[in-house]
Amino acid sequence: MPATRVGFIGLGIMGSRMAANLVRAGFEVTVWNRTAQTARDWAAEHGGQVAPTPAALAAGVDLVVTMVVDGPQVHEVLLGGDGVAEGAPAGLLCIDCTTIGQAAALDIGAGLRERGLRLLDAPVTGSLPGARDGTLLIMIGGDGADLEEARPAFEAMGKTILHVGPLGSGQAIKVISNSVAVANAATVAEGLLAGQAAGVDLDALVAVMEGGAASSRMLTLKQEPMRAHDFTPLFRLAHMIKDVELCLAASTVPFESAQRALDDMRAAAALGHGDEDFAALLVSVEQRTGRRLG
Asked: Which of 132, 154, 184, 288 would you label with 254, given CA atoms 20 to 30 Å apart?
């Protein structure tokens, strides 16, 4: 039977919008958030119910989606005291959209199986615009039959739904993909500063790069915010640091471009930019090159 009642845990930048898309698609949505007022405000705006605990949420839904900060938070809301596993009916399907890394997904999946529950790891990409517009790319690790059971919910939240392998595969792919993306963003920052140092028109430089082999999504998305020093968060720098750290911790091959981007991000976070968009790594690149863009 298709799931019609969804429990959603985590109403941050991404989760609040993903949950809203589920409501718009006709799902009955019950929410829980660590800050209870956030959940009440969300329900007042979008409808749905607010659960007092993750356990209470799980007792009245067909599937649970988690979109929190990191692996320890996912473990706590699913397997901790008053967690989902405490109130869930046998066989309940859990979908974790948090980026937590492959090892954590496998560990949490094992813990849920011991309690008779199921897990799909389903990290997303597309940042705030994708969450808002329901156009996320969702990469899913786990059993194919579980994915089909949850497909209507996935399609309410995303445009591209990919089954990428067994449990943990979505997480492995997500952190590698994000590491490539942020290494590209760091290269964009360096390229813009190199162009400025050379005295070229940056509009012309960007036009040539976007029209040629240097084109990339990071160039399209981040060059304008970098040039304006507008780091309004679409994807927080602190969260990107976490993702790249997960990638590098699991990698068995050198990933030097990701390591350099991580160093830049850590330096930018130390300068107070951790809660801003990861385009703020520019400030570290500016510091080490002795130039300011703009």
From this structure: 288
